[in-house]
Give the backbone structure.
Amino acid sequence: MNNFISSTLALVWQEAPVGRWQTIKVGVLEPDLSKFLVIAALLFVIGVAGVLTRRNIIVIFMSIELILNAANLNFIAFARYLQDTGNLNAVAGQVFTIFIIVVAAAEAAIGLGLVIALYRNKETIFVDKIDLLKW
Amino acid sequence: MLLQANTTALFSVRDLQLIAPELILTLSACVVLVLEVILPRRERKWTAYFSLAGIALAAVSLFLLWQTNRDNLPLDAFYGMVRIDGFGLVFKTIFLLAAALTVAISLRYLDVEGEQRGEYYALILFATVGMMFLACGYDLISLYISLELMALTFYVLVGFTKRDRRSNEAGMKYFLLGAFSSGVLLYGMSLLFGIAGSTNLGDISQSVTSILSGAPLEGALAGGLPLRPMLLLAMIALAAGLFFKIAAVPFHMWAPDAYEGAPTSVTAFLSTGSKAASFALFARIFLEALGGMRADWAPLLGLVAAITIMVGNWAAVTQVNAKRLLAYSSISNAGYLLLGVIAANEYGYIGLVVYLFVYTLMNIGAFGVIISLRRRGLVGDNVDDLTGLGQKAPGMALMMTIFMLSLGGLPLTGGFIGKWFLFGGLLQRAADPADGKDWYLWLAIWAILNTVVSFFYYVRFIRVMYLGDGVADARPLSLSPALRAALVVAVVGVIVIGVYPQPFIKLAQTLVSSLSDAASGAFALR
């Protein structure tokens, strides 16, 4: 467990040899893989929190897009990193991202279509007002 | 895998032959969309017959594919994007069967709902294409695309009766939770891609085994990063996404709402085809890609299966709406099917495949009987609406009885054979000297005990039909030849598999052997 925590921390703050200020400067100017992973993880957490707490369907929908973009960022960062370290097949990650963007567009079309159908009959887009079906 | 594309053509005719069933279905779906526009309103039903013909043609081409290649399976197509193996073929058969039965029971139902449109059948066919690629995809990209193809068409299908508020609501809930779960699944896939350095399931499997043995492969992430925690995180994200898709507790809450609100024929397809496809994906990812870390995921899946079986069965006891009750029943069945994945031995795989096959027959059959009660002005989806069916329509009541007993798992029905292999696989795993742990045995006992509870609510249907006071509705049932044929096929299938299962088991055994080789190979490496 201790090992897990320390390795996770090492992932967040890549330990650099010189002082703290230098570390931050290097981290900002030359971001390495871990920075992107952390940002993607933050996006993912924000997305999940949004889905769980928001009432408005459109906002929930936007939060789902954040989750998808977290995955996109992961794919791009990994693909770039792996290509730099010599794995040329890693271009699959970038291809995957394009597919995800396309699918997200299709998903948006269908989701907004459903919202419109619902609004015509029910005149609300708040999830806590949609309560015909329960238990 | 992608690099090889530089040196040769993008694909060969051989690749197209290997996905011929899917191509046929896609083409017939497009033709159905055109027919819908061309045909006059009165003749719209031909779209349904045409899609049935398309499904039949796809089934024939699937059979020919198996006949010509049965000795040299598995075959890779499109540079490893698609893998044709016995496991995929048997699942494709299940999907085609489910699609054909669904089209047959939809014909009359859509007339009653006043929503007889060609798009419906086209969407069913597109969903089937998605499922079929899900069963044979061997790359995270193709798996994700086919999963979304299936899911997106199902969002539309669930909300198809767009003037019905319950259908709107069900579609919305299914869409939000489905899209959310796809996102979580995708996040897990992205981590898995980063760790393994490839989207191909075979490569991922090798990387996972080598990471666990402490020697990351060339081309994967450097050893400086905490690979094992990341791998665990990826596994948990993938598991959470997949639990949503198969409706396992604690991610099951969309299922009762979507099942109740959706048009009944769509519910039948959703509870069989979509569930079988999600299990195909589950087996692919967990048994093939993550087969090496079985020791990590087996306890997680075991816990989820135990809770799912309990919650599904106990929540079903108090339901009054038949569709909602069958939704909880399908949740508990997801738990039983998980046992086959947990066991991860030949018995378990046979159980998974045979039970999904029988489950498709009996569940579509049960929903077909419920559909026959639907007519204008009467929804007919409460358990009480079946009252007196034993006097009014003895044949229908008998068929419903057989479906219910089979869902419960009574001997001499197909449900019993499936459950026998699922529980048997788990018991075999418990007795395995290399990996025998007590909890496998307890899980099997827990599942068997809960099966007894399930009889309580399945028998409620039978009691209402035969012992209920009076008849709920004296008017005749809304039957059509297609619905009748679908019900007869389902009931015959359930009984034949129950009484004479040997040929089915033997067939399943040869077909799933590819999967057991892959999984046991990865396990032995560890």
DSSP finds five helices and no strands in chain A. Residues 11 and 84 of chain A are 19 Å apart (CA to CA). Chain A has two domains: 1-30, 32-129.
